[in-house]
Structure formats: C-alpha cells, structure tokens
Amino acid sequence: MPTLSKEQIQQRLQEGRNYKRLYFELKDRFDAVVADNKQLKQQLVEQRAYFEAIIEAQSARITELETMVFGRSPKSGRFAKTKPAKVLRTPDSYRRPLPPASAAITAEEHHPITDCHRCGHKLTDKDEAVRYEEDIVLAALTPKVTHKTLIKHTVERGWCSKCGQYSSAKDLRGQIVTLGPVVRSLIVYLVIQADQTYAQTRDLLWQLYRFGVTDGEISNILATRRETYLPAYEHLKQSIRAGPAHMDETHYPIQSEQGAGYAHVMASAVSEDTIFTLADSRGKGNSKKLIGDNYQGIGITDRYGSYKHLFLPGCHQICWAHLQRTARDLTHLECLGKAKQKHVSKFYQQLAAVYAAIRTYQAEPFDQDKRNQQANRLLEQAIQLCQPHKLDPKKLADLKAGILEYQDCLFLCLTTPGIPADNNKAERALRKLVIKRKKSFGVKTMKGASTMEVLLSVCHSLYYQDRKNFLPALHALATAAP
Fold this sequence. Notes:
The protein is an alpha/beta fold. Strand 1 and strand 2 form a beta hairpin. A 5-stranded mixed sheet has the order 5-4-3-6-7, with helices on both faces. It has a two-stranded antiparallel ribbon with strand order 1-2. The chain is built from 13 helices and 7 strands. The chain has a domain at 242-457.
C-alpha cells in the first residue's frame, strides 16, 4: 500500500471537510424542499376544496337560474311529484241549473208542430215541453238596443249678495261630460282584480259595450277611487293588526325609481283581510309601516332578515313550507356528487317528516300540555337534524344554520292555537302582483304605486270575502262614500 505524503493527507482531509459541509448544506436544502413540498400539497388540497366549493355553489346558482328562466320538469325516481287522482265530473257539472221561479222571462217563443218531420204523417196526442235559453246582451251585436245611460243634469245657480259668490245646486267643477259610477266600478274591476292593462281595458269596454275611454280617464278614475277607498284601507289595517298575520314581499318595479321597488303584503291569519304597500325598497321600514307601532300579534314569515326583530319575543313563526321547499330544491342540483346527493336527499326526507308531523298534530284537538311535549320533541329532532356534516354543500349548510338560528320560532304553530305552520296565504296574495308585473312591468310613478296598494288591498279583501257578490260590494263601497 503506497504511503501518502503529508500534503496528500491534508488535501484529503480538506476534501472530507468539504464533503461534510456540502452534505449538511444539501440536507438542509433537501429538508426545506420537503417542507415546502408538504406545504404546497396542503395548499393544493385547500385550494382544490375551495374551488370545488365555488364550482358547486356556482353550479347550484346556474341550476336555480335555469329553473327560473326555463322551468324544470321533476326528475323521475327522486321526489318526482305524483299526479293527484283524477276527480270524475258529476252529470250536473255538464248541465245548467233551472232558472229560479222569480227569474224574469224577457221573451217567449212557441214552436208548434202538426206533421211528423220524418214522414209527414199527421201527429196526435200532442203535449208540450219547456226549455230555457240564457244569454247576455252585447252592444256590438245589438246596436239598436240601448246599452248605456246618459243623464242630463240641469243645475241652477245664483248669486249670493251676502257672500259675494255664486251658489249652485250641484258642484259644477270639472268637465262638462263625466263618467258615471257603474263604468268606474267596472274599470276598477278590470284593471285591479282582472289584471287587465289599460289597453286591454279600453278594448274590452269598446268590444262589449261600444264604450270608449282613454288612458287618462282610466288613470283619473283609479286615483279618484283611491281617495274613496282610503277609509276602507285604513279599516283593513286595523282589522289585520288585531290578530296573527302573514307577511311577505316580492319585487315590483316602479319605473320612476329606475326599476327599483317592492310590494309588501300583510294578510290576516283568521280572515280574508289583506293589505299591500308598494315602496322603493325591500327595507324593514316598509314592513314596520304595515304592522304599525304597537303590534302585539304573531307574525308568520320566511327567514328574510327584515322580519327577524320585527315582532315581540315569542311572537314569530317561521314558514315551514319555505324550509321544506328550499331543502327539496337542493335535491335537484345536478352539480352534486352521488354521496352528497344521497346525503341531501336524506336530509330532505327527514325535514319533510318533521313538517308532516306538525300538520298531523295540528289536526288533533288542541291540548296545551300535549302540544308542548310534541313541540319539544320535534325541536330536539330538528336540532339533531341540523348539526353540521362534512358532506353538506354550502346551501345545505346555510339552511341548517338558518334553522338553528330561528329554532325558537319553529313550533309556535303547535303551542299557540290558530297559528298556521306556513306563509302560503301571503304568497297567494302576492301571486296577483306577480302576474300584473309580468303583464305591465310594474307601475310608472310613486303616485301610481300608492293608488295600486289601496285599490288592490280593498279589491283583494272584498273578492275573497264573497266572490259571487264582489262587484256589487265594490260598487256599493264607492257609492256609499260621502
């Protein structure tokens, strides 16, 4: 073995020291790279979860928008709606009832026969049968018949030397030719209750009665009737505020406010009284305006934030139909994976079971102790159902959090007699405004909004109080006003 010189030994020791130093440097760099790699992997997992949540939320929103715009057919196999059993018509539904004995016969026709209409042979043992024919009179089809009234008013007036003014037997202000109260009531019915536009109202009056009106006349009639019906509107407010009430709102554009605008409704839970208010925002102040300053009743609403502190403690019932509908819509989200779809479907079934139990208990005779026990049991079930889960999509997590937030407002419908578990009455009242919004795109001005809210409140309430006598009641309310 060759002997190393001193210089060679020193050189190799230096190389060893260099290798050792490089080893520790490389090890530190390697450890740093491993740590960075671990951190990047963790960030990748978090970023992936974050973007998956965003994609899921956006996909859910797209699905909802597609449903709003294009509609959705229920999925077969997953909570598809079953068609109700077909109700067979009775024979009487195809026949008109006999006119009452007091009905006025406007004309009679006799139809004699002497010979058989088949062979011409002489008929014997003849008798008579009575038939009735009901019809209406249209001005367009019977132009020679008078279909409208025209009253000529001759008004005397004289000079009062004491007052220094003219005094007349009838107010002479306004136009020389005016419209009578009957056609005014009909116009209110067509525009407000029948959801006709001004153009459709003009066309109907002309086609049916050969009666011409202008848009300005229609607008003036509605504004005048607003003043006439205002006391009835205030009476409706007081009546509804005396008991439990439903509340809801929907977008209703006011064109002078750049399309902003909301319709707010308050409907009595114990009668057919309903009031509307149209405003330029969805704010809490408009709901506060409806209930007044000293409302002591129970409010049935959805979970919109304006209603949260609107009522006294213990006087707020959350609509279960909204909760179930939201959960049901989540089952139709195609963006969810199979595991999440199964998880959401299970939640919907369990929530629907709670709602079904509420309806079952409400159908039973009211017993305070029993209802308290039922409410406590269902509350425990709802709290357990709404615990967070790793498979919860964001919308389901939000729904669960909302139910837990309003847990004190879920079962007032059980513990207090006469309180419904849903807000469907207010939603049905808003349906008319939704239809009008689609046809006329809202109202033009705030003045038109104030006219609409009064007329719609009075018409809606009178109509559902007695549909068969709605128009006479509406007309009587106008003609009875001082």
